[in-house]
Amino acid sequence: MKDRLRRQISSALQVCFDKNTLHSAIIPEVQIEVPGNPDHGDFSSNLAMTMARSEKKSPRQIAEALVAELGDSDFLSKVEIAGPGFINFTLAPTCWYEVLDDIITKGEKYGLSQVGQGRKVQVEFVSANPTGPLHIGHGRGAVVGDAVASILQATGFDVQREYYVNDAGNQVATLGRSIWLRMREQGGETVIFPEDGYQGEYIRDLAANLREEDPTVTELGEDEAIKRCTAFGVSKVLDWIAADLKDFGINFDNWFSEQSLYDRDMVDTELAKLADKGLSYEQDGALWLRTTDYGDDKDRVLIKSDGSPTYFASDVAYHMEKFARGFERVIDVWGADHHGYVPRMKAVVAGLGHPPEDLDVLLIQMVNLLRDGKPYTMGKRSGNFITLNEVVDEVGRDACRFYFLMRRSDSQLDFDLELAKRQSSDNPVYYVQYAHARVCSIKRNAEEQGVVLPECRAVDLYSLTLPEELLLAKQLARYPEMVVGAAQHCEPHRVVYYLQELAAQFHSYYNRQRVLVEDSATTQARLYLVEGVRTVLANALNLLGVDAPERM
To answer: pTM of the full predicted structure?
Structure first.
């Protein structure tokens, strides 16, 4: 609707130039907004005010000249000039109902676009260390990353989902040492377990499994035994992670090993490229990256004075490798505790000659788990954290995914387990899914009564005369623009907000009006309308990876 209105305004503006009522002969970008007060119309534009300087006229004079050329239109029912020169537009109701034809024709493709024009984008998310089960914080990051990727795909981007496996460094060595100590303990030895060792029953399980699979490990020297325990532990934990994510509806296109960077000498190779560009320097026996040249608060160490690489070194090499693979935009989903890494990684991207905005970092805040409004803890098998698998087992995949996306990713989230299981309007995911199921029920009832479901463009939409029917049509028309906005800002919570608004409008309409009435024209029109609602509910839920059930 906005695009159609822009074209009409631009055409009227050209007529003004042709008639010489306006003189600049420059058609600016036409900004269209939705007024905060619905009494002011469907849309508003400040075009007249933006043209005041070039026209050397008051905004109101410009607005009057423009409105005079809009003329009679089946598209616009009212055009008003407000305040110093705002132009408010009210569209004819039939225009809003025409969107139903578009929805019914396109079906599951309604809302898709080519805004991304095939640009290659990589979304890297989860990337949890392979040292233990996924916890609920990882779950939130997993759903955010997956939903962002789906929304980008829906808007025409070529998207790859990637998991970065941190299988090099101290954390995996600590995993191997923890398994080794538990193996010795299970063999009857008395061992002193270090404070930095990984806790939880899963370490004992891994130790027992390895003893059963390869009893000879206990006969190896300690260094070799720990290496064997490390390889075994990483492999098994990655299997757990992949299985948990698959159960959660998430599949990755690529699993990228940090260790592979070292195996292929890519860290040294990529750091040499930085040196050739003059972006690094040596000082006090260490190698530093000039991140302050690009907005960081201090330069960062790549190679320590003892010759060992920092975590930052492999992160730099990994991001250089991403862009070398041809991705035009890289999106990282990180825990909020990594916020300090954002400016330094953007500095790396800028140093490589890319605009800093080619790297987006989405920060994921904590999840506060509640039961009936009170803090709740569990996770006996995992140690001191709550596993994603435990939460999904209790409340189900759909509720878990929906709740994780209900707030901006960088804001804390309260997740009440009892509320997520409740089958009532208090439960947001149930409320939305029930709207879809209700439409399916209406359609089944219609078929049982011998009512033929309407075909596209074979409906008398003039039978839709109620204000709430018009509001539903307007909400459905907003869907494609909402999806584009969610993609541009990497904000999947916008889809959740939209779903909640659409479901609320539909439930209100359903509770006040019958769809199947005696008048056949009204019945057909209302069936057409609610089928549009069902289609958009299903499409939006699909973007979030949440089912749209037909019965509840």
So the answer is: 0.91
